[in-house]
Each structure stands twice: as C-alpha cells, then as structure tokens.
C-alpha cells in the first residue's frame, strides 16, 4: 500500500498569526512553507500587550517562559482624566487571581516565535523576499503564483493560509463585508523605562475624546536584555500623523499640551523626549476595520489582521491572531485523518472556535473607538460618566476585566485559560 503524503500548507505572512500557526502545524507533522515579503524578520514599531488569552496560547506553544524573560508583567489598566480622576481602573485579578498581562516589544515577540519555529526546521521552510501575486484553487490542490528575488515561481500546496495583515490583497474579496480605514491613528515610540509612574500598569490619559496618551511597560529587546523600556503612544487623526513632532518647537508645544493636563507624565517625557540629543523614532500606526463573512473555505483560510482588523481599543490585535493560530491547530487535529485533511470539517471546526469571539470583540471595539478617538463633542463626557459608574459595580468590574483579558467568546460566555493551554503535544515544554 502506498504511503500517503504529508500535508503541505503554505502560510503567507510571517507575523504573529503566521509564525504561531506554523509551529502548531509542524507539531502535527505537517510541512509548512512560510512566505514573507521582507528579506529578514526585523519587526518595527513599539510594544504591544499580551492579554491572558494570548499568554494561554504562548503557554500552549511552549514559549511563555522565554517571553517572560523579555517582557514586562502588567497587572492592570488605569485611565485618568485631566483632574486625576480614574475612569478606567481594570485589573486582571478582578477576572481571575492568577491573571496578568505582558508588555512586550514586537521584536521580542517575533524573536520568541521565530526561535520556536527553528525547532521544527525539518518541517518549516522559510521563503523570504517573496511577493505572492495570486492563488489558483482546484479540486485537489491550490497553486501559488508569485516572485522570489524578482524571479517568477509557482508552487502547489494542499492548503493556503493568508496571514499578511490588514491590507491584504490576497483574501477572497467575496468574503469581505467591511474594509475601511479608521479616521484616527497613533504615533508610537520606545523610550527607557518609565520609573515616575506606578510600575506594572498600562497608564492611559484622556481629555474628552480628542486626546489620548498611553505609557506601556515593554520589557527588553533580544539584543539589549539589560535596558528595560516603555512604549509611549499619542492618538491623533491620520491626516496629522505625518507632521507630528517635526521640530523642536513642535516638541515643546506638545509637551505643554501634556504638562497642562498631566504634569508628572510631562516631566518624565521632557527628560526622555525633549532633549535634542535624544533621537526617538516615532512610528505611525494606521488602523483598519476589516470584517469577513467567513474565515475559511475550500483550501483557503484567512487569519489575524487579514481576517479581522480592528482599532487598538481593548488591545486585542496580537491576542486574536494567537487565538486564530490555536483554533486552526485544534481544527486541523480534528479534521486530519491519515495525512488527509477534511477541509469541510476543518473550517466548520475553526469557525466554531473563532466566529462568536471575533464578532464580539470587533463589535465592542467599533462601539468604543469613537469614545476615545473622535471629534464628537459628546463622546468623552458620555464615556466618563458611563465608565465611572460601571467601575463602581463589582459585576461590571469583573466583566470588563474578563473582556480585556481576551477570553470572552460572547456577551455571556467565555473561554477558559486552561482549555487553551491543554493539549500540548507530549514532550513540548
């Protein structure tokens, strides 16, 4: 009897979703080819917050301990108004005594996942500097057409996973219900660790809905373990991002805006940013709202921001990508039979895992975003009144902490941390 061939998956995009998925497929003895546009992985940007949901997936992947060495423990989120009043006071222990978040630099996140991929070098192939142009699906295979090092190529796979970000041109257009940019974005920078404010807290500062600043503990980078960092973000309309802090005068004006409202934060910022000797690099972040009618069908699946991009409210982007990878791993395990993948069962199972949770967080993010990032005259006042009231009620405090943790699967349902962690392959640590 001839031996059935090992399934071959292509993953387009070596970001959080792509790398995590590659690991979880390789665990199941599946050949994976990772296609990435850049020559080498050098993630740019600032920090991000891994919620308990993302940390559960990290534990499932066997990389949590490595991430903890580089990241910074975050115990909660506090958001204050110009008078010092906290309208957001959410702590992970309100959801569960053992919960916490992890602030981590994008480079560190990528480093941890990339190293894990290399443990499966016999099953994971890297194809860098690749531009994928189109997919051609047939009954028994799917063919990828593109260029590697500017040379045309095509290759055949059993399944293709599209994970190349919010602006993906490869996701099936018929599946896209919404794809539009948010009118507000943010500027981010990395600075030496903030020691002025309470450690282990993501600090946010609000003035109506037009001003929002955040300071996130970010840990260290793989190349500088001893230098602890913080990420600073400043919200603004996307058409203003290009001109932010162009010269010393604009820096001075900006610091005055901050100082007028939150003097301790401004004094710290002045030390680390206003010095002309210091050359901070500010990164522009533009956000999209992407809603899909489905995440997979036939031999094509879409994961991460390519499937469900949203604003940064609730801090779920990377965490949802990690949950996508975990869910796909679970779905493959259920639909795989003697090296053959039942694609109907694969996507049915995947949608069962991810559809309701994704819809919940996208709806909530879309609802909350104007309260923090908009020109609406009433939005800030409505937020301040509503949130200050809700945080006084224990039930709502717990529900909001659970929501932030990333474990909600609907308005009245949630995933269990232990359920995500379990099913680690024997021998994985």
Question: What would you note in describing this structure?
Answer:
With 429 residues, this protein is of the alpha+beta class. 35% of the residues lie in helices and 31% in strands. It has a seven-stranded mixed sheet. It has a six-stranded mixed sheet with strand order 8-2-1-12-21-20, covered by helices on one side. A hairpin with a 5-residue loop joins strand 5 (76-80) and strand 6. The longest helix has 30 residues, at 343-372. The radius of gyration is 22 Å and the shape is globular.
Judged by helices, strands and strand pairing, the structural class is: alpha+beta
Which strand order do you get reading across the main beta sheet? 6-5-15-16-17-14-18
Residue windows where pLDDT falls under 50 for at least 5 positions:
425-429
Number of helices: 12
The CATH class label is Alpha Beta
Q: How many angstroms separate the termini?
A: 36 Å
Mean pLDDT: 93
Q: What gross morphology would you assign?
A: globular
Strand content of the residues, in percent? 25-35%
The helix content, as a percent range, equals: 25-40%
Biggest β-sheet description: 7 strands, mixed
The CATH architecture assignment turns out to be: 3-Layer(bba) Sandwich
CATH topology category name: FAD/NAD(P)-binding domain
Radius of gyration: 22 Å
Q: Could you say how many structural domains there are in total? A: 1
What is the total tally of β strands? 25
The H-level CATH homologous superfamily, spelled out, is FAD/NAD(P)-binding domain
